[in-house]
Amino acid sequence: MIDAQCPGITIGPPEKKLGLRASSTCPVTLENVKVGKEDVLGEVGMGYKYCINILNEGRIGIAAQQVGIAKGCLDAAMPYMEERKQFGTSIGDFQGMQHQYAQIATEIRAAELLTYDACRRKESGISFIKEASMAKLYASQVAERTASKCIEWLGGVGFTRDMPVEKFYRDCKVGSIYEGHDSATEEVVPLVD
Q1: For 148-179, what is each residue's pLDDT tens digit?
Q2: Measuring CA to CA, which residue among 117, 118, 92 is closest to residue 105?
Q3: pLDDT at 11 (0 to 100)
Q4: 87 conformational bin, left if phi > 0, alpha if psi -120 to 50, beta if neither
Q5: Catalytic option among 107, 112, 144, 179
Q6: Does residue 179 have an active-site annotation?
Q7: How far is 182 from 55, CA to CA, in rounded Å?
Q8: pTM for this one?
Q9: Which of 179, 186, 142 is nearest to 58 (CA)?
Q10: Cα 61–73–116 angle (5° rounding)?
């Protein structure tokens, strides 16, 4: 663990990202940086293993984040579905809309349960890599699908910044990328028991 002011460390300007704008992401360049023994965390030569373990644990956090985004989308869209009327009826009362809502609500619950299972296994000291990968993969897909559907349900107003759903849509996209791209996560699931 070294000071950011250490010679050889350059921190670049914040990236201009699609989503998660409240969190800065900056490039960090290390050129001939000297690290003293007192600054080494853990055992020398074990860095890759430490990073992989953190990545595996991080997938649970990403799954939880994605479930939260999906729930936030529904929380933002559902009141509008009751307020907005077509032909004298709330659009949320039309059977076709109720079927879509039922499907999305079921997927969110399934993603939530996968996430809870991965947490339970991790906290119990049981192997959780496969479950964390499955939870992250599915929850990121559900968040994207939910955000997209909620924008559709809200119609034109869903595409504006007047509703938070467009922000959720931008924020959830990274869920399929970080802590292992979905295609890499799909590789992990069948390999681990």
Answers
A1: 999 999 988 888 888 889 999 999 999 888 88
A2: 92
A3: 92
A4: left
A5: 179
A6: yes
A7: 13
A8: 0.87
A9: 179
A10: 30
